[in-house]
């Protein structure tokens, strides 16, 4: 397919020309202000802050504030949680300027909606089943992030799932994740034509340490796909 599927609110579906569409990029698990600044100036659309304490990319609120302060305008700040206590999410939201929530665990739709913020829901592609069943279960989500994990396990594993399982007719923004890197993201975008891609370990020199050269290579690979379209 040489284009991107889009469904209007009326239900009318079209393929948007590949030339007029740009796959968005989220760099997740940023732990240092200088790497947030680098990511933004290299062209990242969003950066993710991990508020899951068992992750090597977990940040405390002071570090998160420093990362946010390093960002220029028009870069979305995403707060990632995995099965958090509601009080913790509320505390983060009260202290930090968060644009979007990402729920990566087994959170129910009512829980995700309870903060009255825009949110994306992670779909565990490590399990069999139709991703569109998740889309139907979370009608208030503004997008869905397809990662390689199974229910009950963490994301950020660096593992790839079968890209042939990405639906082309979900009717909502899909964000591909899971084991993406500068070596494979071009193929992923060409094959699945997602709304966005999300990367964590594939642009790191060590767990939790982003590598500016890898981030640059990753973002270049994504834009190269569009220039060749
Ligand atoms: O990044 C983490 O440490 C993390 C922890 C808990 C849940 C999700 C996490 N990361 C998310 O997983 C995807 C894929 O990561 P990777 O590129 O395979 O390393 C990442 O983009 C985050 O959204």
From TrEMBL:
Domain N-(5'phosphoribosyl) anthranilate isomerase (PRAI): 25-220
Keyword Transport: no
Catalyzed chemical reaction(s): N-(5-phospho-beta-D-ribosyl)anthranilate = 1-(2-carboxyphenylamino)-1-deoxy-D-ribulose 5-phosphate
GO biological process, one term: L-tryptophan biosynthetic process
GO molecular function: phosphoribosylanthranilate isomerase activity
PANTHER family: N-(5'-PHOSPHORIBOSYL)ANTHRANILATE ISOMERASE
Family: Belongs to the TrpF family.
Protein name: N-(5'-phosphoribosyl)anthranilate isomerase
Record organism: Alkalispirillum mobile
Name of the gene encoding the protein in the UniProt record: trpF
